[in-house]
Amino acid sequence: MTAPTLSTGIAVLGVAGRMGRALVEAIQDSPEAVLAGATVREGSPFIGADAGVMAGVGSTGVEVTATLDESCDVIIDFTSVEALAANLELATRLDRPIVIGTTGLSDEQKALLNEAARRIPIVFAPNMSVGVNVLIDIVGRVASLLGDTYDVEIIETHHRFKKDAPSGTALRLGEAAADALGRSLAECAVYGREGHTGERTVREIGFETVRGGDVVGDHTVLFAGLGERVELTHKASSRLTFATGAVKAAVWLAKKPPGLYDMRDVLGLSGE
User: Fold this and answer.
1) Mean of the pLDDT values across residues 174-197?
2) N or C of the chain: less Cβ packing under 10 Å?
3) Catalytic site residue from 159, 162, 235, 248
């Protein structure tokens, strides 16, 4: 007889938000995970509610709280850059792995991630979508094959509520192309163009940002040569895509030693 598979108990921080609710749904849909905690800010009207009912997926028996205890195996955080330090401190204090999908981190906040990763396992990725992470892998390969004779431009579109630009995913796509071409993105990135800019340089990687409506997330990497162009595009139609990837990452992370990982590690694309 095959032994039953134990589910990973996942706690969701900021469960009242759009991503928080999607995460509850993704956990409910996963045969490898179970909701083990759900938090909101102190004073929230959702405190005491059933997390599943609030997310629209039916009762889970998990009450929404303002604090988290040791009852979970892994924590998922898609809240905000402002809450990152406190959430890392929480995960470290509870000695629990944490999956972080918040974008727009400063260099100082990235340093906090590296410091915490010495003590606990962390998955940090600007995009948890399986498709996007496969795209990142493909972009590096295509850039390497096409070389410097093709101009690289990245166009991204998101909903009107997104606070950072370009998106973390767009930047990661730019890094993949730059790395494959032997460039430093910090030195060759051009963010938007206006006025008399002169001719485009060979080494620059351009970014264009569009914000409007309720677009979940579209990303296109354009390789433009003389006489032809190659376009690689990913379009997300539901936040459940990101939530499902984050749950996959949480289940994977529960068995890992301290360290800083990304979705390439989770999906086996890192070559390690």
Assistant:
1) 95
2) N
3) 162
